[in-house]
Specification:
623 residues, ABC transporter transmembrane region fold, Rossmann fold, 2 domains, four-stranded antiparallel beta sheet, 23 helices, 12 strands, elongated, disordered N terminus, binds adenosine-5'-triphosphate
């Protein structure tokens, strides 16, 4: 006798239970309706065909026991060799036909499941892209990836196991019971009584096992944390620097011991479960043979029918135990969909404007950018910018300075419309960004951030990222303009060297120049620059300075300035402090005022600048 209660379904139920706990209470009916309308309905034809095939497959599965019955009751007693051969052939051919139908059914199943996953994965990706920066600052790295890869991947199981699986189990149990009733209702009742004996141990031990698996998972994830903290590059550096290897090894061994204990417990529960399933599932056939045997002796039943019944009963094991957990299976599957829908329901902030007003060409003599009494907060009640009001004339270079946390980056983020202001408006070329066409905004304003992200691709691909149509000559001009010639000459394959993650490592200053080359090639009318704070040696500094000068040419620039050269070149300096503009003017004017700017200048820029005397320290002492 084989082992009833199919192991896979037990895993499945454990996963489903876990999912249910993760999602918490949700409206299963609403989710089910949504799954149908949003996910499955487009595939209703394939689903219907799949359902029909399942039914046909189940019905075919009912035939062999009937052939067996005929063989025992008729063909053998009447010594009809032809019939014996015919029935034996049938017992070979019918399952073959059933298996063929199974192939068709699984093919359809996989097609639909993969089509659904394909659709959802695309939807999830597009939605992830549409989500605002705020979402990414709030969400743990890897969370979205997990949604996309794991959740969408688990759907494969949900769709094939839960949906088609439950359907097939339901059909099998219903049709088999019906066939048994037709054959002999008394025996059918006896078998029906035996049915729960397959299901109960699966349910009971399934739960126990679930708890044990949970403990193992917890211990394993703690093990992963230790690994991540201490056996990755950044972690290893700290461990080695503080000489804490032994302490960390003990921590690892402790958690490792927990994993061992949890896994032994899990294995033990598994064995008891196997025992219970085996013991209880022998009960059904035993009962059947007792009652059946008695009926045969009393000539109220043929031997063939009893044997056919035994065959049917064997077919019922797995489906019946699976059906015992059908509620968890279905709810668990819906819970997964609920998680996916919850992600798709997050509204993008700020909403992406796809057919808005184009920003047009910025012309001299007009403000390129305007902040109109802008108030903004990341968290309600904690304004980070308050009544910020200024204009950036076309072609001007405006430098933002201020103490750390003053709101400088926030000003740039609002210009790039990563966020919308709570009050007031941000305008580019006279168009409120809330109405501006998103693509037009991205072409008009380019952002160069402090830490430059390089894709795992060639240097050339990284440089042309914002302008993939750029020809070789344009790329080379940008490389030269960004003072990168020397770097390119040094790389093993020049511009075609792989850089970025797992690629060739560029230094901080070199990466900054790659960002500058990118910006030069993308050629935005407005440049939003967050200058890197990393201090470089004077040669590298000069290279960047020259590159920046070329980048600034004929552009409107707003820069969070960390370089002396940038603030000296600025047409206007805005001094931010705790979300307000507290001073504005040119370097000389602000220095003369002797306020916050002067203090910052002495503290930040003089330290960085190489020749302080050339920038007018004569005003020291102030007015
Ligand atoms: P720094 O020179 O140190 O980069 P900054 O002037 O650019 O500072 P911002 O980055 O604009 O300052 O930050 C202004 C304030 O907003 C800070 O108090 C910061 O803690 C807060 N802040 C920034 N980003 C967020 C965010 N995503 N969520 C909540 N608060 C934020």
């Amino acid at each position: 006798m084989g082992v009833p209660g199919d192991w896979h379904s037990i895993w499945q139920q454990q996963r489903n239970l876990r999912r249910l706990r993760e999602v918490g209470p949700f409206d299963a009916r609403k989710t089910a309706a949504r799954v149908w309308v949003q996910v499955l309905r487009p595939y209703w034809r394939a689903l219907l065909a799949g359902t029909l095939l399942v039914a046909v497959g189940v019905i075919i599965g009912l035939i062999p026991p009937l052939l067996l019955r005929r063989l025992i009751n008729h063909a053998i007693p009447t010594r009809n060799l032809h019939e014996v051969l015919g029935l034996s052939l049938g017992m070979f051919l019918v399952p073959v036909a059933g298996a063929l139908i199974g192939v068709g059914q699984n093919y359809l199943n996989a097609r639909v499941a993969q089509a659904v996953i394909f659709d959802l994965r695309n939807q999830l990706y597009a939605h992830g892209q549409a989500l605002g920066i705020d979402f990414f600052t709030r969400t743990r790295g890897g969370e979205i990836q997990s949604r996309l890869v794991n959740d969408a991947g688990s759907l494969q199981n949900v769709l094939s196991q839960s949906l088609i699986g439950s359907l097939s189990n339901l059909f099998t149990v219903a049709f088999t019971l019906a066939a048994m009733l037709v054959l002999n209702w008394r025996l059918a009742l006896v078998s029906a009584v035996a049915l729960p004996s397959f299901a109960l141990p699966v349910l009971y031990f399934g739960r126990q096992r679930y708890a044990a698996v949970e403990r193992t998972q917890e211990a394993l994830s703690r093990l992963m944390v230790v690994l991540e903290e201490t056996l990755t590059l950044s972690g290893v550096v700290v461990v080695k620097a503080f000489g804490t290897q032994v302490r960390e090894r003990h921590r690892f061994e402790g958690v490792n011991a927990e994993v061992r204990a949890a896994q032994v417990a899990q294995a033990l529960i598994g064995q008891w479960m196997l025992f219970a399933v085996r013991a209880l599932s022998s009960l059904g056939p035993a009962l059947l043979y007792a009652v059946g045997g008695w009926l045969v002796i009393r000539h109220r039943l043929s031997l063939g029918t009893v044997v056919a019944f035994a065959a049917y009963l064997a077919q019922l094991y797995a489906p019946a135990s699976n059906l015992a957990g059908i509620q968890t299976t279905v709810l668990g599957s819906l819970a997964l969909f609920d998680r996916i829908f919850a992600f798709l329901d997050i509204p993008p902030h700020p909403p992406v404007v796809t057919a808005g007003r184009p920003l047009g060409r910025i012309e001299a003599g007009r403000p390129a950018i305007a902040f109109r009494r802008v108030t903004f907060s990341y968290q309600p009640g904690h304004p980070v910018l308050r009544g910020v009001d200024f204009e950036v004339p076309a072609g001007a270079l405006v430098a933002l300075v201020g103490p750390s946390g003053a709101g400088k980056s926030t000003v740039l983020h609002l210009m790039a419309r990563f966020y919308d202001p709570d009050e007031g408006a941000v305008l580019i070329n006279g168009v409120d960004l809330k109405e501006a066409d998103d693509q037009s905004l991205r072409r008009t304003a380019g952002l160069v951030t402090q830490d430059v992200f390089l894709f795992h691709a060639t240097l050339r691909e990284n440089i042309v990222y914002g302008n993939p149509d750029a020809d070789r000559a344009a790329v080379e001009r940008a490389v030269t303009a960004a003072s990168l010639d020397e770097v390119v000459a040094r790389l093993p394959q020049g511009l075609d060297t792989l850089v970025g993650e797992r690629g060739y490592r560029l230094s901080g200053g070199e990466k900054q120049r790659v960002a500058i080359a990118r910006a030069i090639l993308a050629d935005p009318q407005i440049l939003l620059l967050d200058e890197a704070t990393s201090s470089l040696d004077s040669r590298a500094e000069r290279a960047i300075q020259e590159a920046l000068e070329r980048l600034f040419r004929q552009r409107t620039v707003v820069a969070i300035a960390h370089r002396l050269s940038t603030i000296l070149a600025a047409d206007q300096i805005l001094v931010l402090d705790r979300g307000r503009i507290v001073e504005r003017g040119t370097h000389a004017e602000l220095l003369a005022r002797g306020g916050l700017y002067r203090a910052l200048y002495q503290e930040q820029f003089l330290r960085r600048g190489r020749k302080p005397e050339t920038v007018g320290l004569g005003t020291e002492g102030g007015p």
